[in-house]
Known about the structure:
The protein is an alpha/beta fold. The protein has 10 helices and 6 strands. The protein has a 6-stranded parallel beta sheet, with helices on both faces. Helix 4 (about 85-95) packs across helix 6 (about 125-135). The longest helix is centred in the C-terminal third of the chain and has 15 residues, at about 170-185. The protein is elongated. The protein starts with a strand and ends with a helix.
Amino acid sequence: MIRILLADDQALVRGALAAVLQLEPDIDVVAEVGTGTAVLPAAQRTSPDIALLDVQMPGRDGLAAAADLRRSLPGCRTIICTTFSRPGYLARAMSAGAAGYVVKDSPPEQLVDAIRRVHAGLRFVDPALAAEALVGGASPLTGRETDVLRAAAEGGTVSDIAKELRLSPGTVRNHLSSAIGKTQARTRAEAARLAEGNGWL
């Protein structure tokens, strides 16, 4: 049996996924949680083979939860199952240690196939998203530009961002200006919105 932990903050989606997966003769859903913070404790308690994680959840998001599992329970492989069909999220998921990435509007058979492949030690990425990622490339932002834009998205002033990231205000302005240029935005708020929409933050 392939033991599955399901994490999705929408109870209806979580229940529907569990019901679909329980129909398979070789899959057993051993835990269901609604927050990213609950993923690691539930996994430690139930020892799943695969954690099926949404991206946006209360507490820790699915990407942080995937990284937690990679560090603490390396035998549990992770599949991200999300509405976000963007190359930036795919890249971040793979960096966090996910072995699979499935978009929620995929047919159920594709999710089941992904689970079986990942359980067998392979990787699985939604084919359309994989093709888009090859064409679109990676984030144009540097690590520091990403940090600064993420802090700006939370509404901080240049002084607030400088203090938080231990940079000078001038350095923060330079990074913001560069990020605005790379995202072809007019303002830092728009740059943050565009970057977040592409999965770069």
